[in-house]
UniProtKB/TrEMBL annotation:
Belongs to the DNA photolyase family. It catalyses: cyclobutadipyrimidine (in DNA) = 2 pyrimidine residues (in DNA). GO terms for molecular function: deoxyribodipyrimidine photo-lyase activity; DNA binding; FAD binding. The keyword Membrane does not apply. NCBIfam families: PRK10674.1. Keywords: Chromophore, FAD, Flavoprotein, Lyase. Its EC number is 4.1.99.3. FAD binds at residues 220, 232-236, 271, 274-281. It comes from Aliidiomarina minuta. This is Deoxyribodipyrimidine photo-lyase. It is an enzyme of class 4 (lyase). Gene3D superfamilies: 1.25.40.80, DNA Cyclobutane Dipyrimidine Photolyase, subunit A, domain 3 (1.10.579.10), HUPs (3.40.50.620). Involved in repair of UV radiation-induced DNA damage. Catalyzes the light-dependent monomerization (300-600 nm) of cyclobutyl pyrimidine dimers (in cis-syn configuration), which are formed between adjacent bases on the same DNA strand upon exposure to ultraviolet radiation.
Length: 470
């Protein structure tokens, strides 16, 4: 009997429970990936992320063909059409069961419930697995039985689950199926932006992960906040598409400490905590449906009088604010479809607390540009920066962009790379160059668009008033 494996954010063969169980239980296995074009547009998929998806699907198709599993591409407009489309595919292939790994955002959960109900109604089995997270939502709870709203206690509970459950050993696909030779290139419709510098097969990406954890992770705690260094793993696009599983990373870290998840050095421990942050935000998205509707976690902050100034917002998106570290980050985003995480925090803080522009505008713009755009992590990061989220930065902590620039890019190397107008500016002026440039009659680089001290005071005063009224 045949089974269908529905691939979504799990474009891999290793550590893929749905695929492994289907191969173990059925002689014939068919893989399917579903394209929902208009749904993706509503979810603000970035052109560069779409391009990377296309490339990774072609790699996946080749890998599956080696295992004798064909990959079918189904296209429709919206999630709501998928129950009928998947049923038709299963009936056409003579499949008795559907296998899939769970997704956790609200609309994806509703999509899967609808598919499950429709297929079961027509006599099919549906099997769902949790192989995209190390700890699934609902698995860690407070003493009161509720979900964690603060990261630190969540992380402690998360580590305990890893300690108790351990990390499964990698599996081999069961069964022998003839290799498929006639594989055709997959082409996605819609706007795309070249992601060739990022793309790589599952094997290549796993090698990148292994090399990072072997050679670079020990310096991660001290070097991760320096944007001029290539000190982060740059694997975030592949976590998002599921080319590698968190389980693979945990297994490699486990080899560094017999007491895993405890006993790691500072660098590996800090990097592991970043995986936990990723899961924390996915758990929140699962527990708090309103986050999927553009609402703030802290309800009282909805009353903040955010500005909706298109002109100022445009200057921010173009990297023309007059604050070099902000402009460098925004220009990197435009060119690469990616931005260093520390700089993401700086530019988000600037938009919300210096320009007082609605965090939702920034959240959406990031999703439209980022190759690693993750709805849960992006929402969590923006609400953290705007002080509207759970466990967010306190409202009175307003980043000084000039001081941040001096701390994370002291010699201006990152700024000079992305802001070409400032290439020749001396280090002593690179973080606040306006007086230096004007004294020389240079006007290519804009003046600062706000006075940080005044903007900070207005934000704190207004936010404090809201907090006192709640």
């Amino acid at each position: 009997m045949t089974a269908v494996v529905w691939f979504r954010q799990d474009l891999r063969i290793a550590d893929n429970d749905a695929l492994h169980q289907a191969c173990a239980n059925h002689e014939q296995v068919v893989a399917v990936f579903t394209i929902t074009e208009k749904q993706w547009q509503e979810h603000d998929w970035a052109p560069i992320k779409r391009d990377l998806l296309q490339r990774q699907l072609n790699y996946l198709q080749q890998d599956l063909a080696e295992k004798g599993v064909p990959l079918v591409i189904l296209s429709c407009d919206y999630f709501r059409q998928l129950p009928a489309e998947l049923l038709q595919l299963c009936q056409k292939r003579g499949a008795a069961a559907l296998y899939a790994n769970r997704d956790y955002p609200l609309h994806e959960v509703r999509r899967d419930r609808a598919v499950n109900a429709w297929l079961q109604r027509h006599g099919m089995e549906c099997h769902w697995f949790d192989s995209n997270l190390l700890v699934k939502p609902g698995q860690v709870k407070t003493l009161n039985g509720t979900y964690y709203k603060k990261f630190t206690p969540f992380f402690k509970a998360w580590l305990k689950v890893l300690d108790a459950d351990g990390i499964d050993a990698p599996q081999s696909l069961a069964g022998q199926r003839p290799k498929i030779n006639n594989v055709h290139s997959i082409e996605l419709a819609g706007e795309k932006k070249n992601s060739a510098a990022w793309a790589g097969s599952e094997h290549v990406v796993r090698d990148r992960l292994s090399r990072f954890l072997r050679e670079e992770v020990n310096q991660y705690k001290t070097s991760r906040d320096v944007p001029a260094l290539d000190a982060t793993s740059r694997l975030s696009p592949f976590w998002e598409l599921g080319v590698i599983a968190p389980r693979a990373a945990a297994r490699l870290l486990q080899s560094q400490s017999p007491d895993f998840p405890y006993g790691l050095n500072e660098g590996p421990h800090t990097w592991l905590s970043e995986l936990a942050w990723r899961e924390f935000y996915q758990h929140l998205m699962w527990h708090v449906p309103k986050l999927s509707y553009g609402q703030a976690f802290q309800e009282y902050t909805e009353a903040y009088p955010w500005r909706h100034d298109q002109s100022d917002f445009k200057r921010w998106t173009e990297g023309r604010t007059g604050f070099p570290i902000v402009d460098a980050g925004m220009r990197q985003l435009l060119q690469e479809g990616w931005m260093h995480n520390r700089v993401r925090m700086i530019v988000a803080n600037f938009l919300c607390k210096d320009l007082h522009i609605d965090w939702r505008w920034g959240e959406r713009y990031f999703m439209q540009q980022l190759i690693d755009g993750s709805f849960a992590a992006n929402n969590g990061g923006w609400q953290w920066s705007a002080s509207t989220g759970t466990d967010a930065v306190p409202y009175f902590r307003v980043f000084n962009p000039t001081r941040q620039s001096q701390q994370v890019d002291p010699d201006g190397q990152y700024i000079r790379k992305w802001v070409k107008e400032l290439e020749q500016v001396p280090v002593k002026h690179i973080h606040a160059p306006s007086e230096y440039l004007r004294a020389r009659g240079e006007t290519d680089y804009p003046l600062p668009m706000v006075e940080h001290k005044d903007a900070r005071e207005r934000f704190i005063s207004t936010f404090k008033g809201l907090k006192n009224e709640k």
